[in-house]
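Let's do one together. I've listed all components of the complex below, 650 residues spread over two lines.
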Amino acid sequence: MAAGAAVADSDPAALELLRKSERLMRGSGTEGVYRVRIVRPEWERTLRLKSIDDAVNGRYRLEMLQPRKVKGTVFLKVDNRLSMYLPKLRREIAISPAMMHDPWMGSDFNNQDLLESSALLDRYEHRIVGREGEGGNAVITIESTPKPGSAVSWMGLKQRFRADGLPLEIRYLCKQERRERVLRFEQPREMDGRVIPTRWVMQPLAQPDRRTVIEVEEIRFDVQPDPALFAVGEAANKGRPRR
Amino acid sequence: MKPVIFRLAFRNLTGNARRTALTVTAIAAGLGALIFLWAFNDGLHRNMLDNFQQTLIGSLQIHRAGFFENPKLARHIEQREIILRALEEAGVQHWTQRLESFALTASPTATEGSFLIGIDPRLEPRVTRLHRKVGSGRFLQPDDTYTCVLGATAARNLGVGLGDELVLVAYDRFGVLSAEGFELVGIIASGEMGIDRGLVLAPLASLQEMLEMEGLITDIPIRVPERELDAVTERLQLALQGHDLEILRWHDMFPVMKEWITLHNGFLYLFLAIVLLIVLAGVLNTLLLSMLDRIREFGVFMALGNRNREIGLLVLVESLLIGVLGIALGILLGLLLVVLARRTGIDLSAIAGDTGRFYVDPLIRPELNLKHLATTAATVLSATVLAGLYPAWRAMRLTPAEALRHV
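Okay, and this is what the predicted structure of the assembly comes out as:
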């Protein structure tokens, strides 16, 4: 599957907008603190986490800060592999392909979402299918379908952006309708010099009484993450007296 | 019917005591053997059911509606106090509480999927005999924290021994993957695959903490005697109506065992039919011979003015009397066998080897089931009367002249 040929199938304007949005939301390195509120009919709870996104090297690190029981749990994506470090056991567990569609931390995101956030751009063909309004405030709709032969989780995506790249909404389409969901980007605000959505709501379409709300508490763009944080076994060694 | 027929029949039977005794003994032996077989069978089933229920599941379980079909921690029991009150009112004394889930059990060298049960070490022995199945080490104790008991096969597959740490990985109530270390304190060798292989027992309190289920349970297993099972179930169902709970008897959850028993009883009915056929043939033989022996006698009867119908009736009454006598003796014989076998028990281990997998103890104590006894006795009696029909018919067709000339 030659990347060049596949890209040619996408609408260049659509790709340009997607890349613009990607550049807006992620710097070369991004560090942030997020609050994740999970709403269920039976309960509701809030987690806090620190994320370090090393976009240049394709690495990603999530560290749970709250609640106490999960504090210190680290999710690490290195070389397209996802692992989980459990501080109480001082052990790293590989998240196997079988667990990819399990919910991440009981939320409406799944482990696959952690892994493929940036792969959406490469694995789908993108076309602009709608445009409302003019200039910087125009709203553009892009439809994305899987490239032939690429392994993807969704039958299609329907994304809406502002012309300047600010994401508004991603709709995840699936053959099984009960799995369909929509991610809405809300409350755009300036943070660390950029206007970004500061509240992201993941809503399963078949279950209106469940949702996951992510709020950005702090964010810093274009930082240089410490490579040691991603070293294999680093997470496991942290806090453990070296023998 | 003239009473004289009974007197006559009686005299005929006593007059040829040897022949009568032979027939009666044949019936009695057949019936006695059947009663004993039924009692053995019923004793075996009682033993199986007790063992099956007391191995793990109890006679009855209460969960949140839908939990048995689709166990999720979110479907935990919310009305524990109401249930406990209902249990008290229904006269249930033997109950326990559990938290059930699934886990990945990991040792340093291997991983196995397991059924994870958090048990209350104080209450559990009231319902099951799990605590007696521990082969090495010990069972969970009330003050234990983060200990576990594992089946022998699982322990071997995981390559762990007593005192080793196992890591259990499971989703908690909020759907978060959580993991904890548990010290292996006991190994169960029950001989039963489901338990030796796929089961991990841990203290209820530790699992509640690990799975974010503080103070919460998913099921209440109950033990009641089999004959009270349906009544207790009904009382509980009535008392707990509208609380979104399911009250399941052992055979609602695991119908296989009940079906097996029905099948096994079916075999015994087949056996009963074969024994009946033999009894029928034996009795028919004797009655027919005795009838043929007495053709001249019947001729005299008829010459004296008795009707053919009365001759036939006489033969039938004779077979009825033989049947009643045989059954009385047969019941006595059967009871004697059952009482004797009950006292010593029947040791199967010599012929059957290890039967633990089928929940059967090596020593079976027969148990009398009055329903089975009544059915068997009634069937044998009807068979005897049935056997009398043909000789009676033959006797009826005699004519006085022919009969008198018969040699």
